[in-house]
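Thanks for the sequence, V.! I ran ACY2 Aspartoacylase right away. Repeating your input here for the record:
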Amino acid sequence: GVEVGPQPQGVARADVLDKMRKIVKHGLDFVQLFNEGKEFPPCTIEVFKIMEKVDYPRNKNGEIIAIIHPKLQDQDWQPLKNGDPLFLTLDGKVIPYQGNCTVYPTFINEAAYYEKKQAFVKTEKIKLTAKHLRLPVS
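Predicted structure:
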């Protein structure tokens, strides 16, 4: 599957549709070249590995008591370091990120995840290395 976004629910965006078309085309081009016997050299790519889902701060009744800090809003895939603003309480107090490593949040403040008790997902940036790839000769 391919998920391209962000895109609000019920909204059709030309720029997001164009990105999706390009991704699908690259995938199909790869399959065609692989099936034709093209050899792909080894490569390394940076990816984001999910660490954990993070909920909003809540009171004892389960009600949200803080919102995403404005400096974090719309900063998907950007580094979040220890001490950076994370949440803003309804009375204006900043709740900073407290972590022992830099993380890369994504799905920040997505409406579809409120019911799932998810403010964002913490990811870590890692490198994956692939060996050369070629269709075996029959």
